Amino acid sequence: MKVGIVDYGRGNLRSVENAFLAIGADAVLITRPDELDDITHLVVPGQGEFGDCAANLKKQGMFAPIQQWAADDKPYLGICVGYQLIFEQGEESPDAEGLAIMKGSVKRFPDKGLKIPHMGWNSVIPNDPDHPIWADMPEEPFFYFVHSYYPEPDNPGNVAAVCDYVLPFAAAVTRGNLVATQFHPEKSQHNGLQLLKNFLALSVA
Fold it and tell me: Which residues of 82-107 are buried (b: 16+ CB within 10 A; e: fewer)?
């Protein structure tokens, strides 16, 4: 197995790479579509603005190849904005096109008296605790979040876990070999590393 982490100029890439290296994975940063041929697992991290991140993927020629990777149901992990980008569009950048791997949109937390961005540790409740992505984790694992926007998938069946901050939101989604999380596994200590291990165990057939 070989993990390719998309380097498109956005995101805490070294932390993600170091987290995979810490669990013994062969992980590399990739910037070109042809490098997808050499990996088994694809990771799209991201921090920053939705439209800017989408534009950078297009500039690198990675936008359509990432869409195809997901369409082929190869192991895919989206983190933070890399999660938000799998949807069709986001309120942060209304004119920007998301990857549209899943139907849905990304919305800003409403102002209800809690600090925005949602920053720090919070628990998530898996919708299906028996899903392999939650293997060897507590019943309500804690993860580290930093975000002002949250995805709202059209299909509630894709929601893998819910977190409550301002309102209940989809903290993670799954579909086949695709996993995407609003939280940062690379910053989430034991539970985060376990999730990365579980991601690596997804089928590469």
Answer: bbbbbbebbebbeebebbebbebbbb
Instruction: For 196, list phi and psi in degrees, rounded to 5.
Output: -65, -40
Q: Would the pLDDT of 204 be above 80?
A: no
CATH of the domain at 162: 3.40.50.880
From residue 160, alpha-carbon distances to 19, 136, 176 in Å are: 22, 16, 12
Beta bridge pairs of residue 163: 169
Q: So which residues are the catalytic ones?
A: 80, 184, 186
Joined tokens for residue 191: 């539970």
Mean pLDDT computed over every residue of the chain: 95
β 142-147/118-123 pair status: antiparallel
For residue 171, tell me if it sits in a domain: yes
Q: Are 152 and 134 in contact (CB under 8 A)?
A: no
Q: β-strands 159-165, 125-126: how paired?
A: antiparallel
Query: What's the number of domains the chain is made of?
Result: 1
Task: Work out the pLDDT band at 165, boundaries 50, 70, 90.
Answer: very high
